[in-house]
Amino acid sequence: MKPKRILILGGTTEARELITKISLIPRFEVINSLAGCTRRPVIMWENTRLGGFGGIPGLKHYLEQQQIDILVDATHPFAAQISENAAIAATQLRIPHLMLVRPVWEKTPEDQWIEVTSNQAAAMVLPGLAQRVFLTIGRQELATYAYIKDVWFLMRMIDPPLASTAVPAGKLILERGPFTLKEEKALLETYAIGAIVSKNSGGEATMGKIIAAREAKIPVVMVQRPGIPQGEKVSDIGKAISWLESL
User: Fold this and answer.
1) Secondary structure letter of residue 194 according to DSSP
2) pLDDT tens figures, 80-126
3) What is the mean pLDDT of the chain?
4) Are residues 193 and 125 in the same domain?
5) CATH number, domain at 167?
6) Residues 154 and 167 grouped into a single domain
7) How far apart are CA 171 and CA 153, in angstroms?
8) Domain that holds residue 210
9) Which residues contact 218 (CB under 8 A, 6 or more apart)?
10) Structural contact between residues 168 and 142, judged by C-beta atoms closer than 8 angstroms
11) 108 within some domain
């Protein structure tokens, strides 16, 4: 029997784990797709493509050209555009489509979260909140914070910002997670951080900073996730495998 071809929109820890497990199932053939948002992507699967598709038309063309039978969206929770494009393309082509959605971080009574809906809203609450802020929102939204005066930013990301990007005053750190709780606590102490700005990405790789902030009793300005398209959703690898095997 010809294997079913699965296109996985990846770039996350969950996507890598899912690919590893699917590769052990003979009736599936996996193609991994990375958007190329980072300059040093983690490529752990030989059959991997890099770069965007060119919107919904480009994605539909690729799905048809490569004779994809199943589409799995295991992208970052904030990759809203590709998730929406994937849902529309799969629906129009009548291809089974699954979203592997990482659970959000849940606020505890000990957390001091200021929950906002966007980076723009996060930037508005920072003046007066703290003089030294740990900014962990990636490089694409740095310019949103560049206008803020009297705040020093510690900015951590995988790749440096583009030369044309307006960057807030402070220090850049180029690192890729995961980060331990011990490392995050040391970082907050070393740079005398008074507040954190973070996306609610969920997952274990960067959870340490949230726990460190909790223990240090400093506020976290938490940017909430964008909406998720309609369609089949699961929250863990096991359920994703079960869904695939049911097809």
Assistant:
1) -
2) 999 999 999 999 999 999 999 999 999 999 999 999 999 999 999 99
3) 93
4) yes
5) 3.40.50.1980
6) yes
7) 6
8) 113-223
9) 112, 130, 188, 193, 194, 195, 196
10) yes
11) no
Quick check: is 208 in a domain? yes
pLDDT tens digits for range 29-60: 999 998 765 555 555 667 888 888 999 999 99
Residues 42, 122, single domain; the answer is no
Asked whether 4 and 68 are in contact (CB, 8 A), the reply is: no
Specify whether 216 is located in the same domain as 238: no
* 201 DSSP assignment: -
User: How many degrees, rounded to 5, is the angle at CA 28 between CA 27 and CA 31?
Assistant: 160
What are the residues whose beta carbons fall under 8 Å from the beta carbon of 31, sequence distance 6 or more? Answer: 5, 6, 7, 8, 47, 48, 49, 66, 68
Residues forming beta bridges with residue 31, ordered by sequence position: 7
Q: Are residues 83 and 122 in the same domain?
A: no
pTM for the model: 0.89
Look at residue 199 and tell me if it is in a domain: yes
4 forms beta bridges with 28
Torsion of CA 39, 16, 10, 225, to 10 degrees: -100
Q: For 169, how many CA atoms within 13 A lie in the half-sphere containing its CB?
A: 8
Distances (CA, A) of 86 to 42, 46, 136: 22, 22, 27
CB 14 within 8 A of CB 74: yes
- Going by C-alpha positions, the residue among 95, 76, 107 that lies closest to residue 205 is 76
Is 127 among the domain residues? yes
Q: What percent of the chain has pLDDT over 70?
A: 96
Overall number of domains in the chain: 2
In the chain, what are the helix, strand and coil shares in percent, each to the nearest 5?
Answer: 30, 25, 45
Between residues 244 and 46, which one has the greater pLDDT?
Answer: 244
